[in-house]
Amino acid sequence: MVTDSGKSGSRDIFTMTKTTPLILCALPLLFGGCFFATKSDFDRLQQDVVGAQASTNAADSVQRAYLIEVTRTVRTLSDSINALSKRVNTLRTTTESDLASMKEDISQLQDLSGQSQRQLRDMRAAVEEKTGQPDVASPTDSSAPSANAPAASGGPGPAQLLQAGRDQLLKGGNVSARAAFSELITKHPRSDLVPEAMFFMAQAFAAERNTDAADQEYAALISRFPNSPRVPTAMYKRALQMQASKKTADAKRLFQEIIKRFPRSDEAALADERLQSIK
User: What is the predicted pLDDT for the residue at 1?
Assistant: First the structure.
């Protein structure tokens, strides 16, 4: 049996010896196949990466071109806006210069008008003082006496009283000023200077901080002499007092009335500014 076992072992060894070269020859082929498969996959992956990079580069080129176009458009718009802003600034400067010139001309005309009125009053006062006959020209007052009513005679005339009252008002003598204006209104009710006297009477009350009396005098002037040149100013001063007294609705209504009745007056422009501030 031992002999059989030895023979059997010899056959196994001989068989293994014969098959070993075959296995060794097959191994390179097997590993070579694995190597070639891995290289093929690597080449495919490399191609995919190259394709992705090309797509990315193309997208970047499109985006870069778009950004360049947007930047160019923004720059063009900015230039247009700057040019328009310069034109607007130039136009504004020209307009402001023209408005300033117009305001200066208006101010000069008002100064000349005021000087002319003062000169006329002074002349009338001088004439009254020399002749002793007061001027009784009838104002636009529906409640004034008829033209046939006798005028008061003796004493200073209406122009003298108005001038005296204004002189006192400028000096701060409000009581004396009101006395002169009151005498003018009482003794010369048909004089065309009555509206002036009433206006400055209200001014004297306002200087004394007697706002209620001033408002009543302004209201009487507006009611009795609606066509007097002093009416817009009287209305505006009443509206200011109403606004200061928190009577906003009444002040707003009066400002609107000034604009409607006297659209070209300075008081209308001031009233419009006040309305804007109220809103």
Answer: 47
Query: What is the per-residue pLDDT for 100?
Result: 67
Domain limits for position 92:
42-129
88 and 166 in a common domain: no
Does 271 lie in the same domain as 185? yes
- Tokens linked to 173: 């003598």
Structure tokens at 27: 């191994």
- CA separation for the pair 190, 201 (Å, rounded): 17
More confident residue, 221 or 145: 221
- Tokens encoding 65: 């071109």
Buried b (16+ CB within 10 A) or exposed e, 52-87: eeeeeeeeeeeeeeeeeeeeeeeeeeeeeeeeeeee
CA 179-209-254 angle, to 5 degrees, is 100
Chain centre distance of CA 141: 42
How many domains is the chain partitioned into structurally? 2
* Nearest residue to 242 via CA among 255, 230, 229: 255
Whole-prediction pTM value?
0.51
216, two tokens: 């009543």
